[in-house]
Structure formats: C-alpha cells, structure tokens
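Question:
Now give any protein.
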Amino acid sequence: MKRIKLIVAYDGTNYCGWQIQNNGRTIEEVLNEALTALFHEKVAVIGASRTDSGVHSDGNVAVFDTESRMPADKVCFALNQRLPEDIRVLASEEVPLTWHPRKCNCVKTYEYRILNRKIEIPTLRLYAYFCYFPLDAEKMKQAAAYLVGEHDFTSFCAPRTQAEDMVRTIYSLDVVKTGDMITIRVSGSGFLYNMVRIIAGTLMKVGLGVYPPEHVEEILDARNRAAAGPTAVARGLTLISLEEETELRPVIAAENKEWKYSLDQTKTVKEKQSFLTIERCVPEEFERLLFRVVHQAVRNGAETVYVNDQEAAGRIEAGKAYGYYVFWPSDEKGGWYVTHDARVWGKSGEET
C-alpha cells in the first residue's frame, strides 16, 4: 500500500463543488471514478479544501491510497487521459501513509476577481464577478488591513459551518486594481465556510461607499454573520495554492485587541517541548486561547507544553481540564504551568 498526493486544477463551472453530494456532479466524484477505472480497485481521494459549487482551483491538494505499482510521478499523466478537459492533475508524488492533507500546517491562498466596468466581457463571465458600479479599490485595501492577523471570524462565516472554533489567521490580504480588474488575494492558515466570499462581499460594500473602511473592524468585533456584507458569488473565486510548511515556525505569535501571546517551538522537534507565553488575554477568551494554542503545539509534536500567564497569576487552575489538557504548576520553572500528558489528545486519533 502506498499513498499518492495529487495537485489538482479545475474549472468549477460545471460542478457542484469538490465534495461528493446527491445534487450533482463533483470534482471528488470524477477523480474517484477515473482512479478506480485506472487502477481496477476502489479508490477514494481525500481533498485538502472542499471548494464550493462554481469555485475554481489552480492547485487543490488530494491524496489516495493504492496497491498499484505504477510510479507515483506517472500517475498524473495516466489519470489526465481519463479526466474531462476541465479537470487536470498537475503533479503526483508518493507521500508517507501518515501524511494527511487536512492535518498538516500549510498556507492557503485564494483570489477573488471583480470585473469593474460599464459593460461585461463575455469571456470573463465564468471567472470574475461583474460589478457595474465603480469600486474604490484604495478604500477596499484600507478595509482589508483590519482583517490581517489572528481573529475570531464568526462574522465572516456561513451559519451552517461545522467548525467548532472560529479563530483563524490571515497572513496577508491585498487588493490590487489592474485596468478594469480588481483582485482580492488572501493567504492564511485556513478558512471558515464561505469566509473568503464573505470577505469579498464586505470589501465590495466598502468599495461602493456603503461602509467606511474602519467599519470592517466593527464587523469583526460583532461576531455576528448579519453584521457583514453578502456572500459574493462563487465564480469569482479561485483557490490558487496550498503550500505545505515543511519546517515548524520557530515562534508563532499573535496580537490583537483581545490577546497577545507567543508559542516558542524551537525545542518541539528534538525535545518534544513547547513554551507558551500569554502576555495578555481578556478573561472571556482565556480558556479558549489556552486550549487552542496548546492543541496546536501538540499537533506539531510537543509532548510537554509549558505555559506562562504573565497577566494574571493563578488564572490557570491546577487539575482542571481545558479541553483535552490538564495543567499543574511546574517544579522547574517558577510561574509556569505544564501540561499533564499532552499526548492525551491522540487517544481518539482524530483532530477536532
């Protein structure tokens, strides 16, 4: 048995998204059928990003397991002969059987394109949203700056999401106008359901003058989907790439109005230890932050996580369960708390 990774590009116009469903043809379904026919065995792919109906991709990632002896780098060529012309596998390679596209640290990049002119161009109608009214791209850019960083993006998530935690990190969010085309390009650690399209819809409201740029911060703070703009139509959105982080970041740091912390991972790989320093955190967010960041450290390989709460001594309760984790005062480091068996999360074998 071996596991093969695919880089998949597709025009999403004629498909009901990535994930198999009852109401129409999907990318996942087509890939499964083509792979099953190619290898003469039942194959089911696992995709990294479940793009919506009508959304395009230049580089989604998927894996599948097979008993086939075909060289992994040749799979893309054989598979493309069986795929429709609006789906192509750009590359294929063997990865460890433990590698999972949804459980590795990566940077996801999306682009939302807006054709902003008086008359639509027919050849672009399937790949960009057409807006007749003039948009102020500079104000959209100013508004986008409020969303960069780690925040609770509840206001920018569709209500029927399955996510338990609405905190996500946006590394960059740019708005660029080239001729009549405005491109919103966003990169982050991950995105909530419809998050990029809601961001696009909200920024267009700013561009139209409905909201001032600074109102986007108020929308973010509201944590209410009704506060944000509409969900922009799917055809303007393209998943550009998913870039796996092959090495751990030495330090993960985040700062906003509600919290400021840093996670030192310099000893995570060799010594299985990580160090979380919480400089400040509003009381109502403390337990959620503690669990979320410690869980990330454990996913990254830490078996012991030391925590230093610099703002309020005694805020961590010894013996209390914070999600999967229990903390005790450290015998080695004054002011620090240490997880008790941080590997407890692995008992179920699943990520929340």
